[in-house]
C-alpha cells in the first residue's frame, strides 16, 4: 500500500507522541486509518458503532489518563455525531485528536454519497482544524502531513488542553492487497518543550501586600480533578491563616471538618445583612466552573473588593463572578505552594498574630455545619420512603474506598452535591460540566472504566441513561463499571425548578414520561441487573453490588417523582424557616 504510507506513518506518529488509545467507529472511507491503527502493535483500539458514544468514551478515557485519545470516524454525517463530545472536551479542557475521513474535495456537491463540507466542521469548539492533502506524490505533501500531525497532538495538550481536528481526504483503493503488509517505520517526531509562566519579584510583592492588607480572604475552588496534594495544601492555608476554603463535589474537596461544602444549602435565601457578613474582601478562585446557582449568585450579588483568578493560560479572561481584578497565569498547586511558603515566612518575621483572625472562618464553618444538620434531618425523617435523594445518600455512604464516582448531569449531580463525600473515603469525582449536557454521561463513564482497574460508579437519571444507552452496545462493558440508575420515569429536574414546575405543560413538554425500565437493556449488554423500590432493599443490595466481579452491574432504583418533589419541598420549607429565625 505504498500510496497510503503516510496514513500508516500517522499511526506510528500517534505512538511516538504518547497516544496509546484509539476509538474507531466502522466505515469504509475511514478504512485506511482504521487498518493502520488496528494493526499497530502498540495501540489499544476499541470499536464503538455509534460515533456520538465513541466521542464520549474517548472523553472518559482522556479524562482519567490526562493524555490525548484519538477518535476515527468515516465521512459525512458521522462526523457531526462527534460534535457533542467535542464541545464538552473543549470547555472541559480534555485533549482529543479527531481523525475524520473525507472524500477528496473535488467531489463535494457532486451528488456522491457520505459527502459534505468537513473543513472546519466543528467551528470554534476545537482548538484548531487541519485539512490534509489527498495526494502524497510530492515530498512537500508528506512533510506537511508530518508537520501538521506533530503540531496537532502537541496543541491538544498545550494549556488549555482541548480537542484538535484533523480532516483526512482519502482516495481509493482503501484496502491493501492480500500480499501487502504494513511497515511501521521511523517517523520524524518534533519535540516541543514545555514552559511554565513565572511571576516577577515585583509582582509577587504586590500580591503579598494585597493579601497582607486584607482582613477577609476566601478561596473558592471550581471543577478540578482530585489532587490530594492540593487538598492538603488548601487545608494548611485554611488552618494557619483562617481562610475559608469553599468547594463543591465537582471540586473534589470532600468533608474534612475544615472545608466549606454545603453552600448550596446555606446560601439559599440569604438575607442582605448575612450576605454582607459573609462577603470576602479578597476572593481567590481556581479550577473550572462552579455547579450551583446559589454559590454563583452569592459571589455576584456580594462581589469581593479584589478578586484573583488562577488559571494556567491567559488566552481568555474568566470573570464568571463579574468581579475579577487580577488574572494570575499559573498552575494552581505551584502558585499556592509559593504563596503559602512566602506568607509563612512573612508571618515568622512579623511574629504576633491577630487574635480575632479566625472570626470570618468561623462564620462560614458554623453556617456549613448548620446546613449539614438540616440535610441530615431531611433525610432522617421518620418513616422515610425511598427517594432519589435518600438513594443517593445510601450509595455515597457505601462507595468502595479510593474508587471513582462519575456523576451524570441534571438531578443526580445536585443530590450528590447536597449529600457530599467524606475525605476519608478517598473518592475521585468525575463529571461532564464543560457544557453540562446529559447526552454522553453513560459513555463517558464507560470510557473512565476502560482507563482504570478501580471500581467506577455512575450515578445517572433515567432520561440521561436511555438517551445514551448505545454506550453499552458495541463493545464488552468493562467489568469494573457500576451503574446506579435513578428511574422516576421523567425529567424530574423540571418539577423542582420554578419555571417549568409552574406550567400546565410540565408533564408533556418538559418531564416527558416514558415508561421504560433498564431490565432488557441490561440483559442485552450482559450486565448483572438488580431492581429495588425500598430503602431496605437498596441497603441490602449495595454491599454485593460493589464487590469485584467478572461482569459490570446495574442497579435500577424506582422512585415516585411526586414523593421526590414532596421531600425536596419539605427541605426548601425548612430552609426558609431556619433562615427566617436566623434573621430575627
TrEMBL record:
EC code(s) of this entry: 2.2.1.9
Required cofactor(s): Mg(2+); Mn(2+); thiamine diphosphate
Gene3D superfamilies in alphabetical order: 3.40.50.970, TPP-binding domain (3.40.50.1220)
Alphabetical UniProt keywords: Magnesium, Manganese, Menaquinone biosynthesis, Metal-binding, Thiamine pyrophosphate, Transferase
Domain Thiamine pyrophosphate enzyme N-terminal TPP-binding: 10-119
Cofactor: how bound: Binds 1 thiamine pyrophosphate per subunit.
Annotated Pfam families: TPP_enzyme_M_2, TPP_enzyme_N
Example of a GO biological process term: menaquinone biosynthetic process
Catalytic activity entry: isochorismate + 2-oxoglutarate + H(+) = 5-enolpyruvoyl-6-hydroxy-2-succinyl-cyclohex-3-ene-1-carboxylate + CO2
Domain of life where this protein originates: Bacteria
Stored InterPro entries: DHS-like_NAD/FAD-binding_dom (IPR029035), MenaQ_synth_MenD (IPR004433), MenD_middle (IPR032264), THDP-binding (IPR029061), Thiamin_PyroP_enz_TPP-bd_dom (IPR012001)
Chain ranges of the Menaquinone biosynthesis protein MenD middle domain: 205-406
Assembly behavior: Homodimer.
PANTHER family associated with the record: 2-SUCCINYL-5-ENOLPYRUVYL-6-HYDROXY-3-CYCLOHEXENE-1-CARBOXYLATE SYNTHASE, PROTEIN PHYLLO, CHLOROPLASTIC
Similarity-based family: Belongs to the TPP enzyme family. MenD subfamily.
Function according to Swiss-Prot or TrEMBL: Catalyzes the thiamine diphosphate-dependent decarboxylation of 2-oxoglutarate and the subsequent addition of the resulting succinic semialdehyde-thiamine pyrophosphate anion to isochorismate to yield 2-succinyl-5-enolpyruvyl-6-hydroxy-3-cyclohexene-1-carboxylate (SEPHCHC).
Name this protein carries in UniProt: 2-succinyl-5-enolpyruvyl-6-hydroxy-3-cyclohexene-1-carboxylate synthase
Source organism of this protein record: Spirosoma taeanense
Amino acid at each position: 500500500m505504498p500510496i497510503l504510507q503516510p496514513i500508516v506513518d500517522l499511526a506510528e506518529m500517534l505512538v511516538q507522541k504518547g497516544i496509546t488509545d484509539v476509538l474507531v467507529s466502522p466505515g469504509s472511507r475511514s478504512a485506511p486509518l482504521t487498518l493502520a491503527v488496528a494493526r499497530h502493535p502498540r495501540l489499544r483500539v476499541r470499536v464503538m458503532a455509534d460515533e456520538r458514544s465513541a466521542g464520549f468514551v474517548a472523553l472518559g478515557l482522556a479524562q482519567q489518563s490526562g493524555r490525548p485519545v484519538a477518535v476515527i470516524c468515516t465521512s459525512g454525517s458521522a462526523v457531526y455525531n462527534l460534535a457533542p463530545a467535542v464541545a464538552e472536551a473543549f470547555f472541559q479542557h480534555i485533549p482529543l485528536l479527531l481523525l475524520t475521513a473525507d472524500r477528496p474535495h473535488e467531489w463535494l456537491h457532486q451528488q456522491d454519497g457520505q459527502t459534505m463540507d468537513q473543513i472546519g466542521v466543528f467551528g470554534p469548539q476545537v482548538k484548531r482544524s487541519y485539512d490534509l492533502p489527498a495526494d502524497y506524490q510530492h515530498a512537500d505533501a508528506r512533510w506537511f502531513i508530518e508537520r501538521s500531525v506533530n503540531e496537532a497532538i502537541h496543541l491538544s495538550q498545550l494549556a488549555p488542553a482541548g480537542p484538535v481536528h484533523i480532516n483526512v481526504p482519502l482516495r481509493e483503493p482503501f484496502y491493501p492487497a492480500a500480499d501487502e503488509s504494513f511497515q511501521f517505520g521511523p517517523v520524524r517526531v518534533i519535540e516541543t518543550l514545555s514552559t511554565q509562566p513565572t511571576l516577577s519579584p515585583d509582582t509577587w510583592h504586590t500580591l503579598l501586600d494585597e493579601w497582607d492588607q486584607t482582613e477577609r480572604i476566601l478561596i473558592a475552588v471550581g471543577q478540578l480533578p482530585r489532587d490530594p496534594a492540593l487538598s492538603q495544601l488548601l487545608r494548611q492555608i485554611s488552618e494557619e491563616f483562617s481562610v475559608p476554603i469553599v468547594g463543591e463535589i465537582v471540586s473534589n474537596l470532600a468533608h474534612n471538618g475544615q472545608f466549606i461544602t454545603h453552600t448550596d444549602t446555606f446560601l439559599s435565601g440569604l438575607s442582605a445583612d448575612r450576605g454582607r457578613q459573609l462577603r470576602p474582601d479578597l476572593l481567590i478562585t481556581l479550577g473550572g466552573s462552579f455547579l450551583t446557582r446559589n454559590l454563583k449568585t452569592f459571589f455576584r450579588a456580594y462581589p469581593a473588593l479584589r478578586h484573583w483568578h488562577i488559571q494556567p493560560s491567559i488566552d481568555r479572561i474568566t470573570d464568571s463572578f463579574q468581579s475579577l481584578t487580577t488574572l494570575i497565569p499559573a498552575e494552581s498547586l505551584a502558585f499556592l505552594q509559593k504563596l503559602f511558603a512566602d506568607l509563612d515566612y512573612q508571618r515568622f518575621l512579623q511574629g504576633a498574630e491577630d487574635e480575632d483572625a479566625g472570626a470570618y472562618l468561623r462564620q462560614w464553618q458554623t453556617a456549613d455545619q448548620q446546613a449539614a444538620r438540616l440535610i441530615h434531618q431531611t433525610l432522617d425523617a421518620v418513616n422515610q420512603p425511598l427517594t432519589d435523594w435518600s438513594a443517593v445518600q445510601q450509595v455515597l455512604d457505601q462507595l468502595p474506598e479510593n474508587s471513582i464516582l462519575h456523576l451524570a448531569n441534571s438531578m443526580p449531580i445536585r443530590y450528590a452535591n447536597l449529600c457530599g463525600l467524606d475525605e476519608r473515603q478517598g473518592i475521585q469525582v468525575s463529571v461532564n460540566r464543560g457544557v453540562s449536557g446529559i447526552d454522553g454521561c453513560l459513555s463517558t463513564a464507560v470510557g473512565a472504566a476502560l482507563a482504570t482497574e478501580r471500581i467506577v460508579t455512575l450515578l445517572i437519571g433515567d432520561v440521561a441513561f436511555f438517551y445514551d444507552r448505545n454506550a453499552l452496545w458495541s463493545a464488552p462493558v468493562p467489568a469494573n463499571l457500576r451503574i446506579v440508575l435513578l428511574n422516576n420515569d421523567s425529567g424530574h429536574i423540571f418539577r423542582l425548578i420554578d419555571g417549568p414546575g409552574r406550567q400546565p405543560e410540565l408533564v408533556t413538554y418538559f418531564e416527558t414520561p416514558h415508561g421504560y425500565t433498564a431490565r432488557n437493556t441490561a440483559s442485552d449488554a450482559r450486565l448483572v441487573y438488580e431492581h429495588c423500590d425500598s430503602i431496605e432493599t437498596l441497603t441490602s443490595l449495595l454491599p454485593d453490588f460493589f464487590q469485584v466481579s467478572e461482569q459490570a452491574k446495574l442497579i435500577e432504583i424506582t422512585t415516585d417523582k411526586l414523593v421526590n418533589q414532596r421531600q425536596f419541598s419539605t427541605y426548601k420549607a425548612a430552609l426558609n424557616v431556619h433562615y427566617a429565625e436566623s434573621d430575627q
